[in-house]
Automatic annotation (TrEMBL):
GO terms for biological process: methylation. The lineage of its organism: Archaea, Methanobacteriati, Methanobacteriota, Stenosarchaea group, Methanomicrobia. SUPFAM superfamilies: S-adenosyl-L-methionine-dependent methyltransferases. It comes from Methanolacinia petrolearia (strain DSM 11571 / OCM 486 / SEBR 4847). It comes from the Archaea. The keyword Methyltransferase applies. This is Methylase. The keyword Transferase applies. Keywords: Methyltransferase, S-adenosyl-L-methionine, Transferase. Residues 22-102 form the Methyltransferase small domain. PROSITE patterns: N6_MTASE.
Length: 190
């Protein structure tokens, strides 16, 4: 991979990004229509361009969009799936997942990429509620979560919305364990 551009107000790839990227490389098919939500620098999307010709990314951070474009990623500035039409075979998301108390919040784009709300699941809940409208019938979603966010609680969010989830990758990093969930529709409940 060629060297990527970065910006101080954009989340730089870390262990969570690398774990999710590795899982994506195992999951992606050349025929997949792919969307990456919250692309940041575009590290994952730029890395899979050779695997699928149909890759689009989104981010709410204007600096992330500019950075991802510089890194060769087709990106749309939007909040999660807002304004996105059609369905996707593979949805990728490294969400803000760190539990953050209201008094700890900082109005800063980089912090916005980390702040998962009081329980770390605020953005994940919103994402899960919208996933069904963009995931193809046989589509898959890969989402990074943390033990700090509550693995069982996140899996329950998806289950309550008609999805099945499986842990497909994990890694211990300092005081947390990172997981990649593979989320699919529960076709028995359609």
């Amino acid at each position: 991979m060629t060297e990527l551009f970065y910006h101080e107000q954009v989340y730089r790839p870390e262990e969570d990004t690398f774990l999710l990227s590795e899982a994506v490389m195992h999951e992606i098919k050349s025929t997949d229509r792919v969307i990456e939500i919250g692309t940041g620098s575009g590290f994952i999307s730029s890395g899979i361009r050779e695997r699928s010709e149909q890759v689009i990314a989104t981010d709410i951070n204007p600096y992330a969009c500019t950075t991802a474009k510089k890194n060769g990623v087709e990106v749309v500035r939007t909040d999660l799936f807002s304004g996105i039409c059609g369905t996707f075979d593979l949805v990728i998301f490294n969400p803000p997942y760190l539990p953050t108390k209201a008094e700890e919040r900082i109005d800063d784009w980089l912090e916005y990429a980390l702040d998962g709300g009081e329980d770390g699941r605020t953005t994940i809940q919103k994402f899960a509620e919208q996933l069904g409208s963009v995931l193809s019938k046989t589509g898959r979603c890969l989402i990074l979560i943390s033990s700090l966010t509550g693995t069982d609680e996140v899996r329950k969010i998806f289950s309550d919305l008609g999805f099945l989830s499986f842990i497909v990758a994990e890694k211990k990093v300092e005081d947390e364990r990172l997981y990649v969930l593979r989320v699919i529709r529960d076709l028995c409940r359609l």
